[in-house]
């Protein structure tokens, strides 16, 4: 959506025809300047590319001593059907940035507005600035009318403060949001917007979301790495102990002492037992005598001839 553009009354693209007077009022009007038609039939013309235009003026107060207000005619593109005659109102006190005329929607393209003072009366109507809505494809950065001088910007910001200071009372202070909207100068005109809404405002950039810095990312990575390392060490210790236990359970004692007859036998309860006796042999009478003799004499028994019976 195109942003409305303000064109101050001192802009060289605004053409004046007839007799005009100018004033300089600090911090009250845009760029602190205004123009007033002195003679009837004086005109103000301005060409632009856009879809709407408005004419804003300052109304110092009631009409002059003859009691007659100023009468102004507005025509767009020299079309009589667009002609609109406006009679300046009778404000009780000064009105700044009053929208005297606002055009209906216009087709996109080049247009021209001509303002003619039909009946000029004293200090009844002072032209302050024009405001038009440019085409969407218009290059605002290359047009001198799209930018305001630093003094105009300061005047714009200071005007609201001055107006509020003038209307504030000790018992009921007003804030910027409490300022009353400007009244229409003609019953048939659409409601005018407040002074603050007509100031050019640059779209504010979206709030920047907080971003994680490299330092925070490094700390997070180090913490995760430390946790992973501790976990791996713990698992390794558990696995090592489990393997040691399995080896210990499976280990067998392979040491066997050699058997010695003189040591005897050890039973299941560790008691020594005598070796088993050799099998008994039944000897005859002669063999028994020989054995007995041998054990007594220490030698073999003598041999005897056995006679037949």
UniProtKB/TrEMBL annotation:
Q: Does the keyword RNA-binding apply?
A: no
Question: Residue ranges under compositional bias (Basic and acidic residues)?
Answer: 247-265, 284-295
Compositionally biased region (Low complexity): 141-160, 191-210
The segment annotated Disordered runs over 136-213, 245-309
Keyword tags:
Membrane, Transmembrane, Transmembrane helix
What organism does the UniProt record list as the source?
Answer: Phanerochaete sordida
Protein's name according to its UniProt entry:
Uncharacterized protein
Where do the TM regions start and end? Answer: 219-240
The annotated regions of Polar residues compositional bias extend over 161-175
Pro residues: which segments have biased composition?
299-309
């Amino acid at each position: 959506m195109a942003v409305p553009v303000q064109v101050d009354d001192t802009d060289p693209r605004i053409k004046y025809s007839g007799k005009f007077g100018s004033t300089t009022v600090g911090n009250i009007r845009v760029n602190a300047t205004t123009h007033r038609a002195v003679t009837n039939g004086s005109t103000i013309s301005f060409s632009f590319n856009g879809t709407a235009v408005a004419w804003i003026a300052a109304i110092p107060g009631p009409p002059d001593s003859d009691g007659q207000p100023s009468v102004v005619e507005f025509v767009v593109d020299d079309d009589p059907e667009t002609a609109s005659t406006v009679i300046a109102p009778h404000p009780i006190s000064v009105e700044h940035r009053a929208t005297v005329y606002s055009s209906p929607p216009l087709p996109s393209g080049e247009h021209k507005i001509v303002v003619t003072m039909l009946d000029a009366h004293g200090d009844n109507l002072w032209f302050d600035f024009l405001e038009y809505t440019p085409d969407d494809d218009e290059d605002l950065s290359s047009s001198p009318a799209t930018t305001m001088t630093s003094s105009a910007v300061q005047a714009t910001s200071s005007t609201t403060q001055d107006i509020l200071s003038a209307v504030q009372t000790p018992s009921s202070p007003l804030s910027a949001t409490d300022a009353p909207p400007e009244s229409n100068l003609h019953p048939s005109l659409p409601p005018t917007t407040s002074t603050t809404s007509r100031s050019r405002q640059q779209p504010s950039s979206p709030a920047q979301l907080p971003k994680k810095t490299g330092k925070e990312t490094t700390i997070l990575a180090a913490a995760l790495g430390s946790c992973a390392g501790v976990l791996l060490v713990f698992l390794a210790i558990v696995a090592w102990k489990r393997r040691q236990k399995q080896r210990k359970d499976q280990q067998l004692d392979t040491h066997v002492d050699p058997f010695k007859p003189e040591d005897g036998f050890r039973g299941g309860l560790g008691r020594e037992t005598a070796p088993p006796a050799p099998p008994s042999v039944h000897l005859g009478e002669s063999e028994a005598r020989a054995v007995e003799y041998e054990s007594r004499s220490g030698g073999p028994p003598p041999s005897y001839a056995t006679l037949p019976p």
